[in-house]
Design brief:
Blueprint (H helix, E strand, L loop, with lengths): L1 E6 L2 H11 L8 E5 L6 H14 L15 E6 L2 E7 L6 H7 L2 H6 L1 E5 L13 E7 L5 E6 L20 E2 L1
Parallel strand pairs: 2-5, 2-6, 4-5
Antiparallel strand pairs: 1-7, 1-8, 3-4, 6-7
Helix pairs in contact: 1-2
Length: 164
Amino acid sequence: MQFTVTSNSPQATQNLADALAPMLSIGDVLLLHGVVGAGKTDLARKIIQNRMAKFDLLEDVPSPSFTLVQTYDLGETQFVHIDLYRLSNPDEVYELGIEQAFEEAVCLIEWPSRLGEIAPKSALNIEISILGETERAFKFYWSRDADWDKISTLRKFNLGNTSE
């Protein structure tokens, strides 16, 4: 299953994050793919800040490039933002102990190829492609065994063009 949504501005990307964030619940894992500068951290930050706003929280959401893992307790839901860019071996992922978060939190994972075999089969993949200075394509895809019907409304989300 897959579809693509095109954003033509940072505000359109914010609108996408604002639509996606409330759909996420404990056990959801988003694997964020894309080259350096594609907008993986930006999308994760916007999703987390959307959920923070629901609790009248206003705090910086830094990139976890150096800390590797940032955790946010937002009501009954914990959000875990993980950046695996600096890891070179899937064995290093085990040392982070993030597998438990796959079941107990919402996980937003940058550079998911470094997860190796522990990448959850039920994850939602979002591949971000650079189309221009402020334009991005967001390709949403998941295995047929995963249940991501809850995001089907994003298929028709009006950010610009969408395609199957």
